[in-house]
Amino acid sequence: MNQMEQTMNQTEQYDVFEISFENADTENHVIEHAAVFEHGGKEYPADAFRKEDGVYAVRFMPMEQGTWNYRICVDGAGMDSSVERNMQKTFECVANTHGNHGPVHTQGDGFRYADGSRYLPFGTTCYAWIHQSQELQEETLKTLAESPFNKIRMCVFPKSMPYNNNDPDVYPFRKREDGSWNVWDPDPVFWEKLDTRLAQLRDLGIEADLIVFHPYDRWGFAELSQEESLVYLRYCIARLSAYSNLWWSLANEYEMVYAKSMKDWEEYGEMLLEKDIYGHLRSVHNIFLPFPKKPWLTHCSVQSVDIGHIPVWKKEYGMPVVIDECGYEGNIEYGWGNLTGMEMVHRFWWTIFRGGYCTHGETFHREDEVLWWAKGGKLYGESAPRIAFLKTLLESLPGEWKPIHLNPTNPNLDLNDPEAVENERKFQKALSAMPESVKEGVMLGLNTPLQLESEKFLMKYLERMRPCMAHLDLPKEGKWTVEVIDTWEMTWTVALRGVSGKVKVDLPSKEGIALLALKED
Fold first, then answer.
1. What are 474's strand-pairing partners?
2. Which of 279, 346, 419, 425 has the fewest other C-beta atoms within 10 Å?
3. Residue 1 falls within a domain, yes or no?
4. Whole-model pTM?
């Protein structure tokens, strides 16, 4: 049920409840505390936004089922005399019937929906898809519906860079007579389109990682003053925050938005923390180094090919790490856009086994310049089905799994072997004399295995290596089945049954192999 389908006295949990009114005694684009919602003895203020000329709306996302009370707090508000200032009204919040699990929040170094179910981000990138033709947007939605992706990085503003040369048919703001953007006058046609796309993504189970600012601009949006930028962000919050599938990405490559200072980014983050009553996820994407740790940051959105560094970032930030840009599968002339499908798949596996989450993108050259990373459309690469295979595998694993974290000693060390213990002592002594960068590299490369585990399974990823055999040290309690997984062919092959303790597994001597040991019932 979306806001167009709701009745005035009933809406589903995590959906958008909307009240519209006109004749408000203001011309502001946002009216603070225009309504108050109450449930279970708690009050939640909500702002109104100008929906169209002369018409304002308040949107609210009920997080709990039951009876909600609300009142409008705006002078002069009324629509056919049905909405009056401080008149108490109610609506019923009923169970959600459309698979909406609510907003995603962080839990430790992972994510969960509001209803408690686990969320594993498998993202993709279509920066300017909402700025394309209606036909192309619909094709993008169809492709997404058939894909494994449950998060999409997308921009509010259009984008100007190679393969992004077309102008959109509508912009977020109207212009003044002198041609400058009037951020106090949002264009309802654009925002209604964005509303529709966010709702459609939500209904597909896809989180919208909405990029608020970016540097790739020829229209002047990257040059908005700080006052104008705050006005724009304030409108975004009032209008969009009631969508359950919204994430806030304050920037794509924030260092490249030269008109903004670190103080400016701080103001945006603090505004989100204060004004978004639902606490949607907040991040800032980088080009050089991850955005500094801040109280309002919920997770790290990282551009880097140094995926092995994820454990260090997790330790430094104490929050989930999402590698939102590690290169793109494709064949264009730019170094960041011509990964093989196998390399894209490898980076997904590598990221997951280092304790992070990965985002996909695709950049195959086309004469019509319709590249997925920029405009959406269709997927032509080989990685998406194999990413789907990984996603299905992870979702099938029993128990609450976690990756092996940084370990200052060899995790495979047999403490009952005196000779091995002595050799490890000598190794650590030699390592202690090395520079910090060397010690960190050894720790990441040797002492942090690419391994996921729970009480019921153990899984290792062998990366781009191609050994003919591997050794596993399984728990001695119980019996285990060992399977060989081919990440490219998307196959499972049982290698051993009824084993425990130290075992040898024969392998096919090819890249992209993983080992899965499952505890037998």
1. none
2. 419
3. no
4. 0.92
